[in-house]
Amino acid sequence: MIGRATKTRSSAERRVLDEAGGLRAMTWVMAIMLFLTMLAAALGLATAGAARLLDRQLAGRLTVQIVDGDPVRRDVAAARVLAALRRMPAVAKATPVDRAELTRLLQPWLGSDGADPQLPVPAMIDIDLADHGEAAAAGVAASVRRLGPTIRVDRHESWMSPVNDVMRALTFLALALVLLMASATAAVVVLAARAGLETHRATIAVMHMLGSTDLQVARLFQRRIALDATIGGVGGGVVALLVVGFIGIRLHGLGSELLGGVTLGGVDWVLLALLPVAFVVLATLAARVTIVRALRHIL
Fold first, then answer.
1. Domain boundaries in the chain?
2. On the chain, which terminus has fewer CB atoms closer than 10 Å, C or N?
3. Boundaries of each ABC3 transporter permease C-terminal domain copy (predicted)?
4. How far apart are CA 265 and CA 45, in angstroms?
5. From start to end of 34-182, where are the E strands?
6. What percent of the chain has pLDDT over 70?
7. Whole-prediction pTM
């Protein structure tokens, strides 16, 4: 009699585990959800890293322009400003921008006319400050402006701030997408778990009569969902990592300093690799909570 009961109980457990077609279909759903989640997370991590890199590159950098239509006066003023800058303790490096470099930058708009020595192109000096603080930059800018009325000082942070704002907005958007996908994943698990319970209501009743507790029944469904989430997580995670790596290689190959900074560091790759683990844990916990609560109302 005991052997027959044990055999019936084992058969019921196999039915719960092996015939839950709705739960098995979750494997593809889990893979797709994790794939999209990892793409969103990679976007957020990459843009956050690029924004930090841009901040480091622009902090404490100034450009001085000497705007004068007379080339002789312009060059004399540029030499005076350069000498004054190199005497300032707050300035780590002052480098005049080569005329040939300016000509190359103006060529898309002026063509060959940009090489005309009579063209009133301002002389430019790039400054790297020893102190990246706001006070140091303001002090150097004020000192330089006092050297002449034709002198202008531009802070790199001011004209690149819109780009930085866009990157930070993309980072927050990616974070919101990750949270949204996590919520959607939990909702899918809840719906699948409830569907599985309804499908096997009769089997669960038999298991209860054989002495199974709610936690034991819940463990069977939880194990099935955890397996589906693991298989889907591994598949979707591997594909997502390959896609992210491919896009990173293509961006690096563009040779753009700005787009080249949109890459993932070592810590970012570790965080992405941990996402499938968090994904499986989330699915398992959502399944356990849902099933335990639902089983209280079945019998």
1. 2-56+161-295, 68-149
2. N
3. 177-292
4. 9
5. 61-66, 91-96, 123-129, 151-155
6. 71
7. 0.67
